[in-house]
Amino acid sequence: MKKILFLTSILALALYFNAPAQFFNSAEELIYLTKEWKGERFDDGRPKVPEEILERMKKISIEEAWGVLRSKGYHNQFEGNWEIIHEDEPVVGRAMTARYMPKRPEIMDRFTEKGHEKGRVGAMNSWPIDALQQGDVYVADGFGKVVDGTLIGDNLGNAIFANSGNGVVFDGGSRDLAGLSEIDGFNAFVRGFDPSYLTESMLMGINVPIRIGLATVFPGDVVLAKKTGVLFVPAHLAEEVVVRAEFIVLRDMFGHEMLRKGTYTPGEIDGRWSEEIKAAFLEWVENNPDELPMTKEALDAYLKDRTW
To answer: Are 111 and 203 in contact (CB under 8 A)?
Structure first.
């Protein structure tokens, strides 16, 4: 009896988290899944991390942010090995997710019909683009398909940039590399480029949790995409990641300068700082206000609760 109840509970959860309502944007479900976020939200339920945090995130390295997430128990937020249009242009923003699966004709027809009844226009792969808002990063699980898995070309790329002012991260392919390269401010992290069209793929979810390689991505996560790879920062940790990473930058700047001057040894800088080094660091901060990656107020607040 207990086994039957257990299996019934598992089935109920599976039906809940894969319900058609998710396919057509259930804000209530998304709020439940991201309830750690206490701030403002979009109408679709996604956490709305403030622009100021996004701007500061652009200056953070993948390694710094990754280290903070690992210390909080988040071990599955990074994915590497990308083809990138512009390697030195980061993509940072709020994730707007889409999940694709290999085509099953009757399901694709059924969902297309239902989507049109709900007011969606055109082919399935245009629906996530219509849902984009300024600052979003379109993140799609295209199950790694490149040939015949090209989720966008230059036409859709222009539409994405018009709606979001941002780029994309696709576990799938793209076409029209030359045309996409000409969109000023647009960047794409994809598995590969191919001249083929998208076929034998169907959209199965918009603003749902997805898998990108080894990473788990939730709608509203902050995307930090750089040459190293792509990190997905849970919305409720975004500010903490930025502040802690900024402090690491500042600490490293001080440490590097002290090592170059021979003031302290590598062991002293890499180990737990003595009271003398802490005092020297605070003096260095006072004498180098233009070097701060954060405001002095933010630094003071951070140091107040830090044990070094």
So the answer is: yes
Last residue of a domain, one of 186, 217, 233: 233
- Looking at the fold, whether 151 and 173 belong to one and the same domain comes out as yes
Domain assignment present for residue 167? The answer is: yes
Question: Based on C-alpha coordinates, what's the Rg of the chain?
Answer: 22
Instruction: Report pLDDT digits (tens) over 126-166.
Output: 999 999 999 999 999 999 999 999 999 999 999 999 999 99
Q: Which residues of 265-296 are buried (b: 16+ CB within 10 A; e: fewer)?
A: eeebbeeebeeebeebbeeebeeeeeeebbee
CA distance 21 to 26: 6
Is residue 285 domain-resident?
yes
- 163, 144 Cβ separation under 8 angstroms: no
Give the count of domains, the chain.
Answer: 2
**Mutual angle of helices 62-71 and 238-261, in 10-degree steps:** 120
**Band (118; pLDDT cuts 50, 70, 90):** confident
First CA to last CA distance, the chain: 54
Question: Do 288 and 174 have their domain in common?
Answer: no
Residue ranges making up the domain that contains 253: 239-304
- Listed in sequence order, the DSSP H helices in 44-194 are 51-57, 62-71, 105-117, 127-131, 154-164, 177-181
**pLDDT tens-digit series, residues 173-225:** 999 999 999 999 999 999 999 999 999 999 999 999 999 999 999 999 999 99
Q: Are residues 248 and 223 in the same domain?
A: no
Is the separation of the CB atoms in 205 and 23 below 8 Å? yes
What CATH number should be reported for the domain holding residue 115? 3.50.30.40
pLDDT at 18: 42
Whole-prediction pTM: 0.86
- Dihedral sign from CA coordinates of 211, 144, 63, 293: negative
> How far, in Å, CA of 52 to CA of 239, rounded?
10
